[in-house]
Write a structure and sequence with these properties.
Layout (H helix, E strand, L loop, with lengths): L9 H9 L9 H7 L12 E5 L3 H5 L6 E3 L11 E4 L3 E10 L6 E9 L1 E4 L11 E2 L1
Antiparallel strand pairs: 1-4, 2-3, 3-6, 4-5, 6-7
Length: 130
């Protein structure tokens, strides 16, 4: 993560919300709270996925490490890229939004990821994994 986090910068926001090399399935509540990760309304996110890799490895998906991905539900989105190899990820699911901080349970997976990339070739959102 950069020394100065700019929440308005989509790449910085992506790094904050989705990149964590050391993430484990028991750390969701703590990491999501420490990084102030919320939905667009400032509420607890229902799920958040962390990619257990360096940003440079994920960025590679926007180039030769990925291939074009078509989402039939979003035919007008043409910047999606699918990884050519699976990544280790931790998917954190909200278990209790009535406490502060919100509580999450995490699960480890090894899955292909899909990310939209900006014009500079950087991932800017986490679309999905499978």
């Amino acid at each position: 993560m950069p020394d100065v986090f700019n929440a308005e910068n989509p790449v910085d926001k992506f790094k904050n919300q989705h990149i964590n090399e050391e993430m484990d399935d028991d750390s969701g509540t703590e990491v999501i709270d420490d990084r102030a990760i919320t939905d667009e309304n400032g509420n607890c996110k229902l799920t958040n996925t962390f990619i257990k890799a360096k940003f440079t490895s994920v960025k590679h998906v926007c180039g030769t490490g990925g291939q074009k991905y078509i989402n039939e539900n979003k035919p007008d989105v043409n910047n999606l890229r699918e990884s050519r190899a699976p990544f280790n990820i931790v998917v954190c699911r909200l278990t209790d939004a009535t406490v502060s901080p919100c509580e999450y349970n995490g699960a480890d997976y090894n899955r292909y990821i899909v990310v939209p990339c900006d014009v500079k070739g950087d991932p800017v959102l986490f679309e999905k994994s499978y």
